[in-house]
């Protein structure tokens, strides 16, 4: 009985950990601002407005989701506004068609859940909206279906921009269906592309494990991707950039013509080429894609064929000589020799670049390519095996 009781008590305890004071204070401040906005927009007294522009209790529950759980599918604008509106619609319809209060109370939350599922707008406060409507039917009876628009839909809608503003001011994202913010100089991460799993397959997993109301497809993809990176970090524990970088570098100067750059790429099979000044200081990197993009951009501006412009860039079609400094990227992320290899994982896995220069001061000592990183992971796994 002892182990069973302990297991039962453990399951009865909190299902989530403390989110920390930062998140707690963000949610608290957001709730306060949201309620202030509602009071300014709506009347707190149902009897004070002939048009029904008053605050209803379920708005408090909606605000909890929007301000405390802004990444939840249940808190997104469609779920909040449509979920509350269809629930109010159910409540008003019951008030106008059924005279028995007990039957209204039984039917309202159940039909609200049905309506929210059918409209793909599950929002828990919607159940409270439907129930509150049939428990206090006077406003619904007086306003009729106009009650669905105001105060319910309009009041919920008023919370959305406030939640978005509060999220932006506190470093969060709302609405949260877009990917997370990428690092400076990097494009938005595309977890679905990286995983090689389709949106439909991830949605099927969520349905299979009955989690579609708790987490979105993009969020699941981000979690899986983050878990993969974390596992890779464990495999590279203790390895530094200086240990795996390529040291015998071929470099070019800023004034090197692209004819020579193209020849190096062609003859040596490189995917990246560092650019250094005469004193050996690092200036930037040229990737193969830079040559292609420059040719495409010139073709767009001049209205000529892309292949002709690429040939001109490489010196095969005459015209002005293009130099390495005009094509190189001086903003490629760099690291020091002592940087742990796991710090490169998001840069090389998610970023557009195939390599990360390793610098000591202003001088380049080496470069870590995706090939170097894969080789390090394979070597570590072989040693562990």
What does this structure look like?
β1 and β2 form a beta hairpin. The strands form 2 sheets. This protein has a two-stranded antiparallel ribbon. The chain has a two-stranded antiparallel ribbon with strand order 3-4. The chain has helices at residues 2-12, 21-41, 58-68, 77-97, 101-118, 125-135, 137-143, 146-169, 191-195, 199-208, 217-235, 241-244, 258-268, 288-302, 306-313, 345-350, 370-384; strands at residues 272-276, 282-287, 355-360, 363-369. The protein starts with a helix and ends with a helix. It has 17 helices and 4 strands. The protein is mainly α and 385 residues long. It is elongated. α2 crosses α8 (146-169).
Key traits:
single chain, 385 residues, mainly alpha, two-stranded antiparallel ribbon, elongated
Rg, please?
Answer: 30 Å
Overall strand count: 4
β-sheet strand percentage: 5-15%
Distance between the termini: 43 Å
> How does the helix and strand content classify structurally?
mainly alpha
Percent helix range? 55-70%
Q: Globular, elongated, flat, extended or rod-shaped: what is the shape?
A: elongated
Major sheet strand order = 1-2
Element pattern in H and E:
HHHHHHHHHHHHHEEHHHEEH
Mean pLDDT, all residues: 81
- Number of contiguous helices: 17
| Major sheet | 2 strands, antiparallel
Protein topology:
Elements: H1 2-12, H2 21-41, H3 58-68, H4 77-97, H5 101-118, H6 125-135, H7 137-143, H8 146-169, H9 191-195, H10 199-208, H11 217-235, H12 241-244, H13 258-268, E1 272-276, E2 282-287, H14 288-302, H15 306-313, H16 345-350, E3 355-360, E4 363-369, H17 370-384
Helix pairs in contact: 2-3, 2-8, 3-6, 3-8, 4-5, 4-6, 4-8, 5-6, 10-11, 14-15
